[in-house]
Structures are given as C-alpha cells and as structure tokens.
UniProtKB/TrEMBL annotation:
This is Large ribosomal subunit protein bL31B. One of its GO terms (molecular function) is structural constituent of ribosome. It comes from Streptomyces corchorusii. Belongs to the bacterial ribosomal protein bL31 family. Type B subfamily. InterPro entries: Ribosomal_bL28/bL31-like_sf (IPR034704), Ribosomal_bL31 (IPR002150), Ribosomal_bL31_B (IPR027493), Ribosomal_bL31_sf (IPR042105).
Length: 86
C-alpha cells in the first residue's frame, strides 16, 4: 500500500434514530459531530435514515403508505373531479 493516497480509516458510530440503533465500526467518512459511546470514548457520529434495525426487509414488517389519501389530496388541489371529465 502506498503512503499518502488512501483515506484514513477510523472508528465511527452510525446511528439510526428512528429505531434507536447504533453501530460502532470503522469508516473513512468525515463528520464533525460526535457522540459518547458505551465505553466512555467519544467518536464521530453519522445519522442514517434507515438501517438493518428499521428496514422492512430485515424486520419483517412493512410500512403502510396512504396512497388513497395522497391521490385524493392531489385531486382536491390540482385535479379534476369525475363529473368534470364528461
């Protein structure tokens, strides 16, 4: 491995706030925010929107998307009613 061309790998905490899940691993990602870990040390932290703790594929649950409500709201704002189409 050549010196000076590779990014620095360091311990980083990835945090999924929706699931209350945190994972300490090594990464080259750069962040200025930090968090205190269970061992009392302070590590850089990256907040993620979804992880294995909250992803429906891993948890076996699915999210219900209110598509009917969204369509009705869109039609109320911008669309035509069925009576206007004839």
């Amino acid at each position: 491995m050549r010196n000076g061309i590779h990014p620095v790998s360091r311990p980083v905490v990835f945090r999924d706030r929706a699931a209350g899940f945190q994972l300490l691993t090594r990464s080259t990602i750069d962040t200025e925010r930090t968090v205190e870990w269970e061992d009392g040390s302070t590590y850089p932290v990256v907040d993620v929107e979804i992880s294995s703790a909250s992803h429906p594929f891993y948890t076996g649950t699915s999210r219900v998307v209110d598509t009917a409500g969204r369509v009705e709201r869109f039609q109320r704002r911008y669309g035509r009613t069925t009576a206007d189409r004839h």
